[in-house]
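Note to self: keep these together.
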Amino acid sequence: MTDLQSRFATRLLRGLLALALLLPAAVPASPPGAGAPRLKLVGYVMDGPTLPAISAGKLDAINFAFALVDPRGEVYLPGDTASASLAGLTALRRDNPDLDILVSIGGWGADHFSEAALTPQSRARFADSAVRLMREHRLDGIDIDWEYPTLPGPGISHRPEDRVNFSLMLEEVRARLDEAGWQDGRRYLLTIAAADGEAAQGLELARIGRVLDWINLMTYDFHGSLGPTTGHHTGLDRSRHAPPGSRTTVQAVDEFLAAGVPPRKIHVGVAFYGREFAEVAPARDGLYQPYGRFVDSVPWRVLRERPGRDGDVRHWDAEAQAPYLWNARSRHFVSYDDPQSLAAKAAFVRERGLGGMMYWEHRHDIDDQLLDALRDGLDAATQETTR
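Structure:
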């Protein structure tokens, strides 16, 4: 192929890709008579000196957390262990050949997204470096976790133009992924992590929904150190004691659906950790009460041992479909997810025809207790169609 033919082929491919971006992304339908497709289960795995034990067959995708963006807008892996961790994750394909491994770029406090999305040149630099990193480590796609476009977060750069610029960035990354996929004979994934309410105002949801394979909806951290009261930090529905309009998983999903995101592209997020509050007012066993200080996040592997010990009593809020711990002696309150609440959320995902579920973070589980609750709950959709 001559240089002229090569340039023509490249321009033709980019033109076709640009046209494809204007069309709604199709969600594959099941063939007549087939059972329901397996609902996806996506887990975030943080970097570390060693990887945790991972039952690859129970997962459909793993998001490695995190790659970062430098001041020039290029994507890079921080630290000394990330490359080895990615190699360990891709090795899991021996146990599950269908397992997708994505690199997640960003996370809470990650900066320089606004600059990376600002101009055509910076967006191209971001996309090229992200795709290059993905291919170098033999990954299956890219997950972008910008928290949050147009908002300052914990001191990150931001501007009103982020809303449109993020859409342009995602379209650029999608085009680069499709070019790479054409060369490699496959299709690469593009996903994002997103939140509801104010955080969603910086997203053109209907537009980006056309280029994304799915959205990992962060339906957790509804209550924490920034709020005046305790509450369900990852409740499914609204408690009778919650203020009107308070955030819930149901409300978040409804918001994204109303904005034009296809149901199958929404993955409900769940927490493998709890939020603990101290010096809590004792009314209603500490639920939706003022508190003196926020203690910390508590992983499930610690939380599972606490009910019935040292005064911690588990309660169940039937309206919110959420558990919580209350210690009347120490006046500590903990909001969290457990197998019962995860089963309720999986049922909600099945009932609403959503695409699956996501969790943060794998190291917080123990003996697959929460992972099994999610996998069993999601697989019930397939079992129901084959009866």
